[in-house]
Amino acid sequence: MAEEGGNGVTAATMVVIREYDPKTDGERVEQVESSCEVGPNGELSLYTDLLGDPICRVRNSPAYLMLVAEVVKYGVDGTEKTTEIVGMIRGCIKTVTCGSKFSRSKTCETPKPLPVYTKLAYILGLRVSPFHRRMGIGLKLVSGMEKWFGDNGAEYSYIATDDANEPSVSLFTGKCGYSKFRNPSVLVHPVFAHRLHVSKSVTIVNLTPSEAESIYRHRFSTTEFFPRDIDSVLTNHLNLGTFLAVPRGYIWAGPDKFLSAPPENWAIMSVWNCKDVFKLEVKGASRLRKGFAKTTRVLDRVFPFLRLPSLPKIFSPFGLHMLYGLGGSGQLYTRFAKALFGFAHNLAKDWKCGVVATEVSSEDPLKLAIPHWKVLSFTDLWCIKRLGEDYSDGSVGDWRKSQPGLSIFVDPREF
Which segments constitute the N-acetyltransferase domain (predicted)? Predict the structure, then answer.
């Protein structure tokens, strides 16, 4: 880019993609974030407060990077004049399950499914200032991040975006070579002023991280997107615990006995504290909407025994808890999962969170069983790209062409 100087001399403007510097870039990155509130209709928008840490949403991943796009203007004499950060992107890399294969056995034992892993990269938090869009900056940021992915051995890259976000979908599928891959559902439920009922026929066991890891690896390691470093997730300070719902009267005697002789019906779930990472705020609401929401809270607080649904303070900064690792077995499995949800809601109430959220596969029966508000929930779109054709197809083949499974394992570190 170039600009004409007063004496007919050309002054240059360049876009530089570089690594984020926390010592000098924090305030300028926050300004860009503030200008990029997202919303489906132009009336209401969702603002994310990263609590002073622009890398917070990838910091807990095994490997991560943040890049910024900086406009550098040079004077007519060729010296640097001004710089302005106009965009940013985050990315992380981890190893996850992309499929399964059956073990080979020389005995008559039934072959067991084993996970097939791949090194997967994830792009999130792509932002470009509204005043600098349609200039190819988003594409430059994605290309810069993908180079880092390739240099670190990632085989696939994927992104998650709102299915209704046409500019984002167009950028990744139209210009960056991604293809639509999965359509999970983000289920969001407000935290009421009253506590939810948890069935007395269900006992909830608070598992230790090692107990939770044992159950997850034995029962869910072949689930798509299962992180191989699940132990790091479960021992992270943001993980509030893993909870197992079993029939009343069942005596917990450790994971070994449970795995060898589980009860007929059971469910498991972990809780991640996003509240200490970032906060959300819905902006653009009318006085009428704010007044209505406040009225529901007052009534719920004054008459908790009525169990009235109420809308929390989403028009001011609020926190959320992420529910992940949901699974189980048995004909009554979804009923046990619903009991876990009630327990998680009450836990979020104690932590003064505004909402609880989870993400499930479009094929998962939990989509209908887990309580959620449709007005707050939405369909996610995951797009995927193969970063190199020289990788072995292995036991799974090209992951992009695989059929979706019944469930997915959502990593809370990237929500």
Answer: 15-197
